[in-house]
Structure formats: C-alpha cells, structure tokens
Design a protein that fits this description.
By secondary structure, the chain is an alpha/beta fold. It folds into two domains: 22-47 and 290-417, Lyase, Ornithine Decarboxylase, Chain A, domain 1; 49-286, TIM Barrel. The protein has helices at residues 31-38, 49-62, 77-85, 96-105, 120-130, 140-150, 184-194, 215-231, 256-269, 283-286, 315-318, 409-417; strands at 14-15, 44-47, 66-70, 90-93, 110-113, 134-137, 160-164, 200-204, 237-239, 276-279, 290-300, 303-306, 326-329, 340-346, 355-363, 371-374, 395-398. α2 (49-62) runs parallel beside α12 (409-417) and α7 crosses α8. The protein is elongated.
C-alpha cells in the first residue's frame, strides 16, 4: 500500500542558532556585518524588527479605526511579533493555517477570516477551535455556508458578517476587481439577507494593491455608501481594505496622511456614527522591514546571474516587473566603482522565464562572488518561495537597521510617514 506524504511547497527557511563553542556576538548584526561573517552562498532573508515596529506604530496611530494586518503578505513569526509590538491587534487571515498561527502566537488577538470563499471545514475550525467570529462573504451561497456551519454553536449570537463589494477596475498597479466581490444590486440583497444573522454586519472593498491614488478610497466609499443607503439596514463596520502603497526606485507615493484624510472624509460622509472603520494593510506595514541578500554567481555584460529569482523571493520583480532598491555588498573591502550600470538579473533555475529585467542600478565593477542586498522585500518575498528545480534553500536572520547604509529601508519608512 502506498503512503501519502505531506510536504510544504518549500523547505522551511532556516534560522541560525549558534553552537556554544562559537564566540558570542552581539545580536542583531547589520546586514553588512552579517554578510562579512556568514559569506552566504544561499539567499538570506533579512528582517528588521525595529523598522516593522515603527511602521506599524505609524499606521496604527494614523488610521482612525482598527488595523487588520494581512497575514498573507508575510507570515514570519518575527514579523508578526514586531507588528504586535507596534500596536497591531487585529489580523486578516485567509486560511486555517494563518488563523492557527496567529492564535498560537497571540491568544488575545482579534482574528478576522477575510477570504470570500472558504472550505466548510475551515469555517468550522476557525469558529470552534480558534474563536474567530468575523467572516467575509460575497455571494448568497457563501452566506448560507457560513451560517449553516456555525449555527449549532452560535447560541450567543456572536457571528460577524462582512460583505465584500465589487469595485470597477481602477488604476492600482495590481487590479483586484476580477476575482471577488458582489455587484451593487446583488450587494443590496445580500446585506438585507445577512442582517438577521449578524451581531456585526459590515461592508468591505479593496481598491487594488499598490494604489497610488488617495481619491480611489473616496470613490469606493461613495459606492459603498450608495449600496448601504439602498439596502436600508444598519451597518456596523466599513472595511476600506488594503492597497496602501510603498516607495520603490521609480515610485514615490503620496504621504500616508493623504490617504487617511480621504478615508476619514469619505467615511464621515456616509453618516454612520456608530460604525467602526477597518483597514487591511499588508505591503504598507512590512515592505520596508525586509530584504534579501543574494550572491552573484556569474556576470555576462549587463546581466547578473544570482542565487534567487522569480521562483524564490523575487516573483514580483519578474512577473510584475517591480524594481527594488539594490546595493552592492563587498565585505572584503577594496575600491568600488562610482559609476553605475542598469543590470538585469537572472535567477538560479533552468527556466528562461526566471528573469528580472529591472534595470537594477549597481556599480560598474560588480563581479562574481559579490553580494547584493535587494530591499523593500518584506512584502511578498520569502512567503512566495517555491521548491522549483530544487532551489528551495534559504535562511532568515533578524538584523539591525543601519540608516547610513545606501538604500536602507529606514529611508522608505521616513518617506512614507512624511
């Protein structure tokens, strides 16, 4: 009889624990010091807890409601701990594994199951084992599914229901209008149908990921307001979703305050004094708090072959063409060219699609054996790794921020908060 083996898509990222015989070293190190010590031949994911804490604190203090961190963006425990230290107490989860992770780490956290389509077993597990009480839906079938699966134990009427509203296609870098959400007329009927079952009834939307236009939230709130008015039912929650942008080499978003001003004004115009405001940021909280250090394995003209790529932590650099800040690390010293070249990058797999066109600007004399730190990868970096072609080995380290380092994420945090 054959046996069924269950395996993660990628081997767990390895954390380094020192042997007692190794000399004591103050932790955490800066990225440069870490590379000088380890001289790694595999990718190293660097997490900056102090940056994450600072970014989370800034967002929590700026947003006039509850901040639900989108766990899918980066579920690493070190990241979650830093966000908790920064004041995040609510979590947007989309799977039983995410729910279990958050509940294990933070028994008092408020967990919200924000995936519009869920397995029945996932609903039961979240409700019964992890005390999740808020669930998103965007169809009559999903509403019925949720109500039926919790009915037996919903004796105290604790169920919270949040309707995901569809939005027209907007100008975000990543449009999210095609997969989830109820159209306006359907949404009206769904709010009316859900109201009798919900101790908390909400409406949610998502303007798209990396949305640079603060007015997008104003327009979305107007659409939500029209649906609420036509439904004629009491609304307890208005969830403005995520999509808050961060800075990249060719992108400088408006300051965070511009987004908050539009959201506050748009929410006030709804005339719902007893409703609670939610947001689901992901990238905006964690992008600046992580990077990946890669090594150059070969150079061919203005193309660098590195040990990470689109099947690893650089998926967005390939598929979506994101450009990330990059800097050379050459710990053995020596002169570094002042002139720069725009390089394209190729990942380690045998797939020709494992390419990141960039350009990534680095010193002209970069060569095999040098290391590159690629920043702004705290979001959708390590969590997207696969085991394709056997390149599934990487490690993860918590590091200290060094504001003097060129391209340090600290600058991006400061720019976002300005």
């Amino acid at each position: 009889m054959s046996s069924l083996r269950v395996r993660s898509a990628v081997s767990p990222l390895r954390r380094h624990f020192r042997d007692q015989s190794e000399p004591a070293v103050a932790r955490p190190l800066t990225v440069d010091a870490l590379v000088a010590e380890l001289r790694p031949e595999e990718p190293v994911h660097c997490i900056r807890p102090d940056v994450l804490k600072s970014t989370a604190s800034e967002f929590v203090q700026s947003f006039p409601g509850d901040v639900l961190y989108a766990v899918k963006c980066n579920p690493d425990p070190a990241v979650l701990r830093a966000l908790w230290a920064g004041g995040v107490r609510h979590f947007d989860c989309a799977s039983p594994n995410e729910v279990a992770l958050v509940r294990h780490m933070f028994p008092d956290a408020a967990i919200h199951f924000m995936h519009p389509i869920k397995a029945r077993g996932a609903i039961r597990e979240a409700w019964a084992r992890h005390d999740v009480r808020d669930f998103v839906f965007d169809s009559a079938a999903e509403l019925t599914k949720i109500v039926n699966e919790v009915a037996a134990t919903n004796v105290d009427g604790e169920l919270g229901l949040v309707l995901r509203l569809a939005l027209p296609k907007g100008g975000a870098v990543l449009d999210l209008s095609g997969k989830f959400g109820a159209a306006d007329d359907e949404a009206v009927a769904l709010l009316r149908a859900a109201r009798p079952y919900a101790v908390r009834l909400g409406i949610a939307f998502h303007v798209g990921s990396q949305c640079l236009d603060p007015l997008a939230w104003r327009r979305a709130l107007q659409i939500a307001g029209n649906v609420i008015a036509e439904a004629g039912v009491t609304i307890d929650i208005v969830d403005v979703g995520g999509g808050f942008p961060v800075a990249y080499p060719d992108v400088e978003p408006p300051p965070l305050g511009a987004f908050m001003a539009e959201i506050e004004d748009g929410f006030e115009r709804l005339g719902l004094p007893n409703a609670r405001l939610w947001a689901e940021p992901g990238r905006a909280l964690v992008a600046a708090g992580g990077s990946v250090v890669v090594q150059v394995q070969a150079r061919r003209g203005d193309a660098l072959y590195i040990n990470d790529g689109v099947y690893g932590s650089l998926a967005d650099a390939g598929t979506l063409g994101f450009r990330y800040p990059a800097r050379l690390i050459r710990p053995n010293g020596g002169d570094v060219a002042t002139a720069e070249t725009g390089f394209s990058l190729f990942g380690p797999t045998c797939d020709s699609a494992d390419a990141m066109r960039g350009p990534f600007f680095l010193p002209d004399d970069i060569r095999e054996g040098d290391w590159i730190e690629i920043d702004q990868l705290g979001a959708y970096g390590a969590c997207l790794r696969t085991g394709f072609n056997g390149f599934d080995r990487a490690r993860i380290e918590e590091v200290a921020s060094a504001p003097a380092e060129t391209g340090s994420p600290v600058a991006f945090v400061q720019a976002l908060a300005a």
